[in-house]
C-alpha cells in the first residue's frame, strides 16, 4: 500500500474519532475531511469552538499537529 491511501485511512479514522467525541459531549457539529483539510460545520459558534478544542485535545493524543495559521473560525 502506498502513502496516499494510508494517509487517507488515517485521516478518515481520526475524523470518526473526533466526531464520536463531539457527539458524546453533546457538541452539535459535523466534521468532514478532504485530503489534509478538516471542516467543522455547526449551527452555533459555541459548538464549532468546542469542536476545535476536541480536535486540539484528541489530535494531540493521536500525534497530530495543526497549522493554526490556516484555521478560520
TrEMBL record:
InterPro entries: RT_dom (IPR000477)
Domain of life per record: Eukaryota
Every Reverse transcriptase domain range: 1-73
Protein name, entry field: Reverse transcriptase domain-containing protein
Gene this protein is translated from: PLEST005501
